[in-house]
From TrEMBL:
Belongs to the short-chain dehydrogenases/reductases (SDR) family. Its EC number is 1.1.1.30. It comes from the Bacteria. Keywords: Oxidoreductase. NCBIfam families: PHB_DH (TIGR01963), PRK12429.1 (NF009093). One of its GO terms (molecular function) is 3-hydroxybutyrate dehydrogenase activity. The keyword Oxidoreductase applies. This is D-beta-hydroxybutyrate dehydrogenase. It comes from Rubellimicrobium mesophilum DSM 19309.
Length: 261
């Protein structure tokens, strides 16, 4: 085995992986030698080009499969169409901010479906194949909000807490079978979506870029530094490695100390 490509011969399915954290994870897994299946709810030429580019860059098989993570049958079909799923990364997620008593019901339903139920469906579809091989890795991208709470994010926090619980149950059901299930709990990660919020926050608070990042956006992150998609990707690769073969049913916080408070 090439020590620089320890996941050679494995296939990884990463949901919500055409940008941000999901794309960072897919690239890290490809860099470790895994074939990767990218996913989103669109089906544009650029989606397939992205996968092709990753395949060429890292010398792995990389494909794109469209699936709407709010629909259980499409979640399961994604795994079936992947042509194998040794590594499952449940990353897809959406957010909405509102008080509980005025939280739109349809937004609640969508957030729970995409952030939590999708992971149930993909995991249920992937486990039989993992058991047949005697090896598998389930990595759920939860959040610091899977371990703590903030106001006005009821659906997101409920879903992420639920995802942590689902992770623990999957770990118990697969213990001793060569399969692990763990959750990564990022704090604020510098993604294109977050980057796009910075100018608006600067204008709203009358602050320069560094001040608004440090004093407003990262107020709850003691390091006052964003995590990076590369760091989340590296943590995922570790959880898929032999070194982590006995790490299961737990959470790893990549949050600059947020949940230590």
């Amino acid at each position: 085995m090439d020590p620089n490509r320890p996941l050679s011969g494995r296939t990884a399915v990463v949901t919500g992986s055409t940008s941000g954290i999901g794309l960072g994870i897919a690239r890290a897994l490809a860099g470790a030698g895994a074939g990767v299946v990218l996913n989103s709810f669109t089906d544009n030429g650029s989606d397939h080009d992205l996968a092709q580019g990753i395949g060429a860059e890292f010398g792995v098989r990389a494909t794109y499969v469209r699936a709407d993570m709010s629909k259980g049958e499409e979640c399961r079909a994604l795994v079936a169409q992947a042509g194998g799923c040794d590594i499952l990364v449940n990353n897809a997620g959406v957010q909405h901010v509102a008080p509980i008593d005025s939280f739109p019901v349809e937004r609640w339903d969508t957030i729970l479906a995409i952030n939590l139920s999708s992971a149930f469906h993909t995991t249920a579809a992937a486990l039989p194949g993992m058991r047949a091989k005697g090896w598998g890795r389930v990595v759920n991208i939860a959040s610091a909000h899977g371990l703590t709470a903030s106001p006005y994010k009821a659906a997101y926090i409920a879903a992420k807490h639920g995802l942590v619980g689902l992770t623990k149950t999957a770990a118990l059901e697969t213990a001793g079978q060569g399969i692990t299930a763990n959750a990564i709990c990022p704090g604020y990660v510098l993604t294109p979506l977050v980057e796009a919020q910075i100018p608006d926050q600067m204008k709203a608070h009358g602050m320069d870029r560094e001040t608004v990042i440090r004093e407003v956006m990262l107020e709850r992150q003691p390091s006052r530094q964003f995590a990076t998609v590369e760091q989340i990707g590296g943590t995922t690769v570790f959880l898929c490695s032999e070194a982590a073969a006995q790490v299961t049913g737990t959470t790893i916080s990549v949050d600059g100390g947020w949940t230590a408070l």
